[in-house]
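INFO  loader      accepted 1 record
INFO  loader      residues=214
INFO  predictor   begin
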Amino acid sequence: MKIKVCGMRDPENIVELAKLNPDYLGLIFYSPSKRFVGNPDKEVLNSLPKSIKLVGVFVDEVMEVVLNKIKEYDLSAIQLHGSESFIYCQQLKNELSIRMPSKKIDLLKAFGLSNSFDFAVLKPFVDVVDYFLFDTKTTEHGGSGLTFDWRILREYVEEKPFFLSGGLAPENIQEIHNLGLDQFYGVDLNSKFESAPGLKDIESLQSAFEIIRK
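INFO  predictor   done
INFO  writer      dumping C-alpha cells
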C-alpha cells in the first residue's frame, strides 16, 4: 500500500515528514487552495530522499504551466484534480514523452465520487493515465475533509490502480484494510492529519503510517 501525503508547503514540516518516508509528497499549485504551495523551497525539495516522489497537483491549469513546474521542481508525478478531459491528459503525456523522454512522470487523474457516480466516465482515461484518485465530490477541489461511501468502490471494474482520498483520518484509517479491492494502490492523506491548513501533525501521520504498513 503506497502512501501519499498531500498539501505540503512548510519547509520544516516537509523535512519532518520525509523522515517517515512517504511514497509520494504532494505540492498543490492551485492558488485558490488553502494549501497552495506558491514557490516551494527548492533546496529542501532537492534534499529529500529520491525514494519520495514529488507530486504536483493542478486544477484545470494551462498545460505549459504544468510542464514548466515539472521541470522547475523536478516533479515525478502530476495529479490533475479538475475537469481535465482525457484529450488533455493524452496531450500532456505526449508532450512529456517529447520534452522529457528519459524521465517517467506518473499521471494521476482525480474524480470526485458520490453515490450517483457513473464509473463509465473513467473508460476513456484508462489507457491514458497511470492511476486514478478517488476523492469526495464537493464544490472544492480536494482537501474538504469529507468522506464518501467507500462501498461504491465495489462498482469499480477497471484494472487501473487507484488512490483513495477524501476524509481519511486517524479514526477511520484502519478501515481501509476492509476494502479488499485488488486495484486499491494507495492512500492520500491530507486535511485530517493537520494542525492547520498545510501543516501536518507528524505524530498523527506516524501512527497512520504504522497502521497502513503493518
